[in-house]
């Protein structure tokens, strides 16, 4: 005979017991300063539901006992968080719909401390799946807390993955300056940190200055010898992990040289020889963080290429093979803007990325052709009225602004890409059209517009094939 389980009525009865608590024998005071609250509970239920309370009550960990009442104080757990915990202990019910991200993180820490394993796993997974926006805005705070929790590797990995994918947003966050030293060092040691080395150096210097108490100003020209000495002590563990040989001579002169006093003398001499005399480095040369082979482009930098690769191989296919190269197929200023020449350069070359620099603007726009132009029948673009459509779901278009501000728009409906003799590019039903000089962007087939205006004039255009190394 099949069992019948009356969990709902059981949960309701225990909820009533918690609310009435006439025969309670435990008082738990949580919070600190003016934000405190007392909760009444029953030792038998606490023992049964929490290994922490079972051990504490068995070994008299309680802070005090008065008139047969057991007293606990937990100043490190806030009242809102403990209210969620005590309800879960009594009823098995947890509702996080209107709970702040900060309190959910506090709940994670408290459930770990109270050895509520089921609750801990649920809250950890909830943060990753439902609170991604809050996590990404508070990565410094979250990492500082979860790095101390042995059972929280999954959430730590999520945080690191977010930083590796978009390090700039992390480094310019308001609380970056208080990032824990060991966490920052762990990040710098990773090759997966996709960032230009000179940008990483800038962030490291700003962090180091904020961490060095004797430095009262940001102007390096006003630093004293004591300031440099103290900054050297702060940054000493980090220096060996900086890829100085990846930094251009111009950036070295403007951004590294002013801090030469914090560099070890052998390293500094080696860098000068490398940059001026082009000698082979004597120090170990670490592999590039950005494993992207990008030929000289007139439009994008290697960081742009890395972000595009992330979109192609991580967001679309889940792959984490970052060792690829861009091979230049076409450049407008070099090859001209004749449509027949364009197709002869890009046809049958596999997946490709097109980038366009908008005239008199910092904006860069483009798209990823996930199918490649090899689907375009040879010479058919010369036939009047010929039009071929391609609906590969991995097509996307994008834009970059100042400071690498980015926007990606995925193909969602309609037509993903057209090939015909009228336009060099035609993503979607008007989402990105370019005839060789002039273009337009009217959102239709992709999920968001990539420009705040509709029409543009191009300064330059390049097409690259995407090739695994």
From TrEMBL:
Q: Which domain of life is it from?
A: Eukaryota
Name the source organism: Diversispora epigaea
PROSITE patterns in the cross-refs: BTB, TLDC
Question: What protein does this entry describe?
Answer: BTB domain-containing protein
Residue ranges constituting the TLDc domain according to the UniProt record: 298-467
> Which residue numbers delimit the BTB domain?
24-98
Q: Name one Pfam family in it.
A: BTB
């Amino acid at each position: 005979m099949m069992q019948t389980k009356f969990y709902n009525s059981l949960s309701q009865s225990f909820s009533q017991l918690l609310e009435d608590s006439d025969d309670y024998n435990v008082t738990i005071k949580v919070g600190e300063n003016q934000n405190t609250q007392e909760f009444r509970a029953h030792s038998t239920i606490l023992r049964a539901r929490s290994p922490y309370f079972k051990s504490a009550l068995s070994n008299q960990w309680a802070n005090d006992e008065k008139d047969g009442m057991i007293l606990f104080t937990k100043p490190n757990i806030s009242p809102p968080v403990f209210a969620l915990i005590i309800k879960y202990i009594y009823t098995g019910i947890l509702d996080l719909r209107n709970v702040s991200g900060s309190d959910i993180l506090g709940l994670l820490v408290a459930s770990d401390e109270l050895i509520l394993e089921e609750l801990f796993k649920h809250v950890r997974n909830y943060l990753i799946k439902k609170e991604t926006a809050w996590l990404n805005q508070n990565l410094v705070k979250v990492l500082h807390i979860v790095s101390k929790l042995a059972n929280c590797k999954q959430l730590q990995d999520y945080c690191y993955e977010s930083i590796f994918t978009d390090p700039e947003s992390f480094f310019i966050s308001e609380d970056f300056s208080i990032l824990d030293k060991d966490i920052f060092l762990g990040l710098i040691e990773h090759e997966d940190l996709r960032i230009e080395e000179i940008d990483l150096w800038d962030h490291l210097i700003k962090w180091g200055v904020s961490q060095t108490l004797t430095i009262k100003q940001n102007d390096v020209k006003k630093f004293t010898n004591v300031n440099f000495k103290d900054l050297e002590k702060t940054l000493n563990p980090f220096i060996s992990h900086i890829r100085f040989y990846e930094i251009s001579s111009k950036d070295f002169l403007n951004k590294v040289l002013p801090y030469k006093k914090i560099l070890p003398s052998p390293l500094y001499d080696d860098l000068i020889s490398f940059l001026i005399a082009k000698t082979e480095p004597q120090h170990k040369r670490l592999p590039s963080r950005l494993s992207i082979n990008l030929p000289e482009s007139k439009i994008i930098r290697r960081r742009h290429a890395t972000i595009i690769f992330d979109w192609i191989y991580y967001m679309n296919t889940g792959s984490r093979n970052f060792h690829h190269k861009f091979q230049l197929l076409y450049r407008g200023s070099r090859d001209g803007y004749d449509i027949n020449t364009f197709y002869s350069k890009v046809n049958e070359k596999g997946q490709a990325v097109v980038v366009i620099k908008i005239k008199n603007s910092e904006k860069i726009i483009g798209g990823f052709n996930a199918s490649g132009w090899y689907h375009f029948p040879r010479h058919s673009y010369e036939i009047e009225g010929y039009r071929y459509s391609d609906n590969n779901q991995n097509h996307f278009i994008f834009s970059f602004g100042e400071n690498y501000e980015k926007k990606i728009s995925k193909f969602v409906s309609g037509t993903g890409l057209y090939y015909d003799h009228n336009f060099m590019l035609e993503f979607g039903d008007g989402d990105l059209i370019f005839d060789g000089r002039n273009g337009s962007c009217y959102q239709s087939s992709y999920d968001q517009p990539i420009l705040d205006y509709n029409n543009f004039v191009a300064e330059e255009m390049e097409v690259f094939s995407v090739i695994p190394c």
